[in-house]
Design a protein that fits this description.
seven-stranded mixed β-sheet, 29 strands, eight-stranded parallel β-sheet, alpha/beta, TIM Barrel, 21% strand, 4 domains, 30% helix, 22 helices, Immunoglobulin-like, disordered N terminus
Length: 732
């Protein structure tokens, strides 16, 4: 269920402002939604120290940080001329919105098409003649802090019709579907990689590539939406991109050049900043490449790194770094003082700890000045907000991060960062190709690990091929409490859980690092050939939603049956359509007998009955029960109880169900007709299961509630915005 944390700094004026807006703009339905919260808002405004979690059937208070979130509801950001575009908006307050389709990203006031947002998904039909780049954003007439409430923006491109472009579009969609299956995001746009075993879409080619997946933790993250050239050879790719900027007559400058006012003309300047993080050895490869090109960069160094990656400044090749400085490179302090105090799972950091971090900045800068001319500082990101630590005057450094030094950034016309798991806002090569001579000054933040770590694992070795090495979070916590060193897989788990504790925004997914089910899937030729044959029979509209084979929920279901179904009598509840009945047989163990049960006689099941009736009685037992369609069951909890009733001891129940986070089928995006299941919200049983138009979706709380009384072992996994469950009934 969606929850928004009210800000403890909320002022009474905010209450009055919202109330005034509500009275003037909101519909009666939205007024009713928020009316029950007025006394909570007033209480929070009066008592700053009281923070309440307010929730009421997916309705939320509009707090100071409220921001809708828009995304493509079907994978892909590249389209063919004349194609329809589907988007969904996470808008739990249900505030009035309009969707803007902006055809010229360089001038957001021109060529704007507007659609009134009513429900998800939203269908956008661009002008049939239009090709080129576009931006889509959601906007509300509600004013917050002097500006309209608006969502994030998503970019895309429409290409002219051709066979070549058709292939590009299909490749893009599969790549982004892979990305969606590997990355979890929050409503504030924070991305977290939960499945590094999924190869990025453009890395999955037949050519030998030098890139490889690495474990993900603080300061050590891969790029997941780069171009094919990147994965072929990351270091060469970086070299080509920087060389392209130089060929466009751009000159490379430093922060010291700006501070000392040595730059008279910013029209053709690049400030290239390297945040070393976990890549000190990778930096040598990248810096040597830049040195050969005759360009200079800005290097942001830790004095000491602990926990996630460990080194002291003395461990680096000081002579090499000082030689770079003599050639015009500059060095600054990359502030990780609070990270070094917080450790692996930072929670409830005290004011005393923050003050100590502030003092440590002085020590760190002083130590670095023994080797370099340290005049600047940037804050390290990650799970700990180092930018909340006060920079002491005694450190005598200038923070050059944009939020703290807007005057220094006034000359930059374009910016690029490869932080996180994606090259934002686009791949590095695409960014460089759009740069024209005399375009203005450019700021680029790059992390050497993403380029110089390959192909030899200069800093981080390749990820293991199996998820079996991923430990339980309790094991990791025990090691942390005991002050024991974590291996790379344990660091990955600690980082992932810490990320959702520390970073803001509501999770738009329910993933975790453990692949309890999918890690058991088999990919032998027999299974693969069956899947490819059946996928070829799917409707094109279905394949548009699930372009990547391994992210197709039907394919995942076939894998689930082929691994976990037991040989013997099998009950499929919710009969397949007549033309698809052969699918189930192909993935059951040989010799299994399949019996189908449905409330709808038109499906021609062997058993016609309501499986959501507590009084159901069958005259036989089954070794496997299949429930791949739980959203259609009026009372899912009753269906699961009945599954346990008809299963033999040691039998297994397999479940597939749309998650609440599904952009087109989930309750986060469609609360009215795809509600999130709760026991007290069971629908009326009179509507036939397979004919129902109001379907359930499920979040982690739903799954926990449904399976809490299951008589045996339960394993579940969130994959591709679906839940898959294997529940084995105890032997006795």
């Amino acid at each position: 269920m969606a929850i928004l944390y009210a800000n403890n700094e909320m002022k009474l004026s905010l209450f009055n402002m919202i109330k005034k807006i509500i009275n003037k703009i909101y519909s009666k339905r939205v007024k009713k939604t928020l009316k029950t919260y007025w006394h909570y808002v007033r209480e929070l405004a009066v008592n700053k120290n009281k923070i309440s979690k307010l929730k009421n059937n997916n309705k939320k208070i509009i707090g100071e940080n409220y921001k809708p979130y828009i995304l493509y509801s079907r994978p892909g950001s590249v389209f063919l001329q004349g194609e329809k575009i589907y988007v969904s908006v996470f808008n739990p307050c249900n505030i009035p919105l309009e969707i803007l389709f902006i055809q010229d990203p360089n001038d957001v006031n021109k060529n704007i098409a507007k659609l009134l947002w009513k429900q998800n998904p939203v269908l956008i039909t661009p002008d049939a003649k239009f090709t080129g780049d576009f931006i889509i954003v959601a906007r509300s007439p509600i004013v917050k802090e002097g500006a309209l409430i608006r969502s994030n923006s998503i970019r895309g491109k429409i290409l002219p019709l051709s066979q070549e472009h058709n292939e590009l579009v299909q490749t893009n969609r599969e790549a982004e579907h892979r990305f969606d299956c590997a990355i979890e995001r929050t409503s504030s746009g924070v991305l977290s990689l939960h499945n590094p075993w999924i190869l990025p879409g453009y890395a999955n080619n037949e050519k030998k590539i030098k890139w490889f997946p690495i474990p993900v933790f603080e300061g050590a993250t891969s790029l997941y939406n780069e171009l094919p050239e990147y994965y072929t050879d990351p270091l060469l790719y970086f070299s080509d991109c920087i060389s392209a900027l130089k060929s466009k007559k751009y000159r490379f400058i430093t922060w010291h050049d700006i501070l000392d006012k040595r730059v008279d003309d910013f029209s053709n300047c690049v400030l290239l900043q390297f945040d070393i993080d976990a890549g000190p050895n990778s930096f040598h490869h990248v810096a040597s490449l830049c040195d050969e090109l005759g360009i200079v960069g800005n290097v942001m160094l830790h004095r000491k790194a602990k926990y996630w990656y460990e080194y002291d400044i003395e461990d680096l090749d000081i002579n090499y770094l000082r030689d770079l400085e003599s050639k015009g490179w500059t060095f600054g302090y990359h502030n990780n003082a609070l990270t070094n105090i917080a450790g692996y799972l930072p929670e409830n950091l005290t004011e005393e700890e923050r003050n100590q971090a502030s003092k440590n900045i002085i020590h760190d800068v002083t130590a670095l000045r023994a080797y370099f001319d340290i005049r600047t500082l940037t804050h390290h990101g990650g799970n700990v907000l180092n930018n909340t630590v006060k920079i002491p005057d005694e450190a005598d450094v200038i923070c050059v991060d944009r939020p703290f030094a807007s005057e220094l950034w006034s000359s930059f016309k374009k910016t690029f960062s490869d932080g996180g798991f994606s090259a934002r806002p686009e791949p590095l090569k695409a960014f460089v190709e759009q740069v024209k001579p005399n375009d203005g000054s450019i700021f680029m933040r790059c992390h050497p690990l993403k380029y110089g770590n390959y192909p030899n694992g200069s800093d981080i070795n390749a990820l293991s091929d199996t998820t079996d090495l991923v430990p339980d979070i309790d094991v990791v916590n025990n090691k942390i409490v005991s002050n024991k060193e974590l291996n790379i897989h344990e660091r990955q788990v600690a980082w992932w859980y810490g990320r959702f504790h520390q970073r803001t925004g509501e999770r738009l997914g329910f993933a975790d690092p453990y692949k309890k089910l999918s890690s058991k899937f088999k990919f032998d030729n027999k299974i693969i050939n069956k899947i490819k044959t059946l996928r070829s029979e799917r409707r094109s509209e279905f394949l548009r939603i699930y372009p990547w084979e391994e992210g197709d929920p039907r394919v995942i279901w076939w894998h689930l049956m082929s691994v976990f179904a037991k040989q013997g009598p099998t009950l499929n509840v919710g009969a397949m359509p007549l033309e698809q009945k052969h699918e189930t047989y192909q993935f059951l163990p040989e010799g299994s007998e399949l019996i189908e049960l449905d409330i709808d006689p038109d499906r021609e099941p062997e058993l016609v009955m309501n499986f959501c009736d507590d009084s159901i009685q069958l005259d036989r037992k089954f070794i496997t029960v299949l429930l791949n369609g739980l959203p259609y069951f009026s009372k899912p909890d009753v269906a699961i109880r009945n599954s346990a009733k008809v299963l033999s001891p040691g039998g297994v129940l397999l479940i597939g169900a749309a998650a609440a986070s599904h952009p087109e089928r989930g309750g986060m995006f469609r609360p009215e007709d795809r509600p999130i299941w709760r026991a007290d919200l069971n629908l009326n049983c009179d509507t036939p299961l397979s004919l129902s138009t109001k379907l359930w979706s499920f979040d982690d709380e739903s799954i926990s509630g449904l399976m809490s009384s299951w008589p045996g072992k339960v394993q579940s996994e969130f994959i591709s915005n679906y839940w898959f469950i294997v529940a084995q009934k105890q032997e006795y």
